[in-house]
Design a protein that fits this description.
This protein is an alpha/beta fold. The protein contains eight helices and eight strands.
Length: 224
């Protein structure tokens, strides 16, 4: 988007905003289904930042407006790039040595936290369901196999039986909606119910650009 703003010929604010929306829609329509929700959420947040910048803009000409919008875009990009580090630091504050965690999915953020814990000498006991049919849990175990944690692969059907022995559940999210619900891998709902039944915390690691105002699917992923 920064490149688009830099090269836009304008010459009007409305024309530039139409270019940004059209480019965003093009990306959404040509990306994999798994990343569609993330991109939609990120685009809505970006448009909000841009609109807010335009509302308080004191630019006298189109070139000044371009420079202001580029600055806003770079500030938002810096926030997004810093998010994983901030999430990692927050997680490390409550992760103790030998704590037992059920990891659901193959979130890069969770991998980041587990690697950081390993570097600081914190050994965790991890239970990782296979997450079929996409085998995300199998992929997760492969990614962290070189770390010093005590990691154990379990069948998805064994989640309920190990839940009483863990301290909390850790997962990622494709999107986070306004009521606090998440859109994530199939099976996440079942894991959450099991965690609630056993009184175990269910923590979700997600960047703020995944916050979605509008949920287009119900819990069975049917259009609303």
């Amino acid at each position: 988007m920064i490149h688009l703003i830099q090269n836009s010929k304008g010459p009007t604010i409305q024309g530039l905003m139409n270019e940004i929306r059209s480019s965003g829609d093009f990306l959404i329509n040509n990306i994999g289904k798994q990343q569609e929700l993330v991109l939609k959420s990120a685009l809505n947040i970006y448009l909000h930042y841009i609109s807010k910048g335009l509302r308080y803009s004191k630019a006298d000409n189109f070139k000044d407006l371009q420079e202001q919008l580029i600055q806003i875009s770079e500030e938002l990009l810096a926030i997004i790039q810093q998010a994983p580090e901030n999430i990692k630091k927050s997680c490390l504050q409550f992760i103790r040595n030998r704590i037992k965690i059920l990891i659901y999915g193959n979130s890069p953020l969770i991998q980041l936290v587990l690697k950081a814990a390993d570097r600081q000498g914190t050994i965790l006991q991890l239970f990782i369901p296979e997450c079929r049919p996409n085998n995300d849990g199998i992929d997760m175990l492969k990614q962290i196999s070189s770390l010093g944690h005590d990691s154990q692969q379990i069948f998805d059907s064994a989640i309920g039986s190990v839940m009483e022995n863990i301290d909390f559940v850790l997962t990622g999210a494709d999107a986070v909606v306004e009521n606090g619900g998440i859109i994530n891998k199939i099976g996440s709902y079942t894991v959450a119910i099991a965690a609630k039944a056993h009184g175990r915390p269910f923590y979700v690691l997600a960047e703020s650009f995944k916050f979605a105002r509008h949920l287009e699917y119900d819990i069975n992923q049917q259009p609303l």
